Amino acid sequence: MEQAKPCAIAVMAKAPQPGRSKTRLVPALTPEQAAGLSAAFLRDVTENISAAAARFPTAGYIAYAPAGLENLFAGHLAAGTGLILADGSPEMPANVKNFGRCLLHAIDALLAHGHSAACVLNSDSPTLPTALLEHTARLLAAPGDRAVLGPADDGGYYLLGLKKPHAHLFADIAWSTGTVARDTAARAAEIGLELITLPAWYDVDDAGSLARLLENLRTFPPHHCERSEAIHIPNTHDLAKTPYDAPATRAFLESIGLLTPQHLAERA
Description:
The protein is α/β, with parallel strands linked by helices. It has one domain (7-267): Spore Coat Polysaccharide Biosynthesis Protein SpsA, Chain A, CATH 3.90.550.10. Helices cover 33% and strands 13% of the residues. It is built from seven helices and seven strands. The chain has helices at residues 31-53, 99-112, 130-141, 180-190, 207-219, 247-255, 261-267; strands at residues 7-13, 58-64, 82-85, 118-121, 147-151, 157-162, 195-197. A seven-stranded mixed beta sheet has the order 3-2-1-4-6-5-7. Helix 1 packs across helix 3 (130-141) and helix 1 (31-53) packs antiparallel against helix 6. Mean pLDDT is 92; it is low at 228-234 and 262-268.
């Protein structure tokens, strides 16, 4: 029997395009700057998956839609990142709607590709600690069925990992609301699925969260942020203590004058 491939982590992403990427960051940024920041996020999030893979076997993907835009990701991803279509087009249960169809499509595709587990990850958290990704892969590699949920501060989730395509976790969810993580946990309880909850993190999708990202990067200069070396985690809470370095995001924000090297040097 062929050995299963390692846990796959797929970033749910749109191709970076002015006027279509990170539109809630406009007018805080211009449409061109918002697209540039989106591209920087993609680089950092996929490089972060690669950093986790250096600690524990993991495969990185971009789960994209619509079809035909694959070439727009060229140059924006970590080496070895795969591409899978996740437009929600396959037949699915009637109560799985909207973005839930895309998420379930991604999970189904990764598991069908032979991976032992599949995670969907947002594209809006460039500083997400690498330790959280590594820990997720380790949890999903252990015997027994389970789900791993990474709740976001806005009530959604930044990550959901599964070993089987449990469609009920995507059923009757009010997407883009503050109850998504809570409702997902309730769906897991309804089918008796073990759910492990990670520490919360935040999305960067509006002016307020962009300001939070800038402060996060200023508070943790590059040499204080997490690199790819394995670290000892004494308890789950400590998984979220060290943000990922996010070098592409730092460089882009510096290039548009929102994050200056001088300011970082003063905080070091």
